[in-house]
Amino acid sequence: MEKASRREFLRRTGGAAAIALGARHAGAGEASGAAERVVLGIIGPGGMGMSLLRSFASRKDVAIAHVCDVDEKRMAAARDAAGGGGKRPEASKDLRRVLDDRAVDAVVIATPDHWHGPATILALAAGKHVYVEKPASHNLSEGRLMVDAARKAGKVVQVGTQSRSTPHVRRAVELIRDGAIGDVLVAKAWNSQLRANIGHAEPSDPPAHLDFDLWVGPAPMVPYRSNLLHSSWRWFRAFGCGDMGNDGVHDIDIARWGLGAAVHPTSVAALGGKYFFDDDQEFPDTQYVVFEYGDIGGKRRQLVFEQRIWSPYVQEGHENGDAFYGTKGMLILGKGSGWKLFGPRNELREEVKGGIDSAAHHADFLDAIRTGRRPHADIEEGHLSAALVHLGNIATRLGRTLRFDPAAERFTGDGEADAMLAREYRPDHWAVPKG
Ligand SMILES: NC(=O)c1ccc[n+]([C@@H]2O[C@H](COP(=O)([O-])OP(=O)(O)OC[C@H]3O[C@@H](n4cnc5c(N)ncnc54)[C@H](O)[C@@H]3O)[C@@H](O)[C@H]2O)c1
Asked: pTM for this structure?
């Protein structure tokens, strides 16, 4: 596979006045006072990936060296979008080409969920820092492998839960953790974003511009169907995590953060299913999940998740939101709009408005790379929150209360549930994670 050299890339992208981060680390000649550029590869510039590409491309301290998508149309659109100012990134459909380029400091992984773990683990093994979209993992066991790989490599892995860098959300969590509403025993996250019916589709030929074999990757091969991609893969178990892992995980992450739950829960109970949609989706459109933490600060605590993705009504003014119930008050939060803090008897004490600050999250990733600190949404946090999605979906499928051993990351005495913590792979595929 052809390797672009770092020096050649910097010359091509007008990098004479700037020097890339990795070059500095490698001891290559650094002009005094030169800005440090992080050289990025964007893997999966689809819906979210294009938004990430535009955000990173707008920064002076970043150079986009590669765009990689298994869909040639998307790859070409991404190359055009990243190529402003005459800087043309390499374009490819096989992520190994990006990882093989020693000029690349970091990769952004915005593929479907089933590629998050495999691509992150391969990228870390290639010495790259990683920004991986949420949910961190497709399944719980890959989440653990991702954390272990990050620690082994000593690289930054930021998960795309941008609320972690959003000022009004950070302030709310700080207040909660400082006791502004007393002791928070219950946190609730909800998702009531309206979703579309994806219909029923028969197997058909994939479009010529799509490498469907690469798209499926390490997952077991399935026939192509028109309602599988793009974007609607998230409703299929082999590739996504349903809406709990899609929009739900943002609010679940905030709820867990405010609750101070830096561990896995000890129990999970759930009910739900497809009460509304008659289509090929494999995940619940209606879901109620309760997690219990056995001991946080000497007390049992609950995290509750509710999902109704067919209802035109919202809770507390937010289609996705969080409520924190404390012994002295309550805080209601919408990550995209703001929060209200109430004292006893619903007395409004403080109200703050604010929108999601994705750029701050991207800046945090770059700063973590430069300083060697953990990012706001470190992979360990991403793993803990994605694990709630996986446990919740497993409990909903099984329809019974499950006991979980947080240290072993296994259910207690439930082989059927344990089997759902991992997934099947395509035999001998190059991207199957080791271990
Ligand atoms: N942080 C957020 O707010 C947010 C919002 C939306 C989506 N997301 C996340 O972003 C990810 C992508 O979601 P989306 O809605 O953009 O999906 P999408 O299907 O529109 O885009 C995924 C892209 O990845 C490409 N791809 C698939 N396999 C690949 C591979 N092996 N190598 C290179 N490219 C590959 C696809 O061709 C497609 O262009 C998901 O994990 C999703 O959860 C995050």
From this structure: 0.94
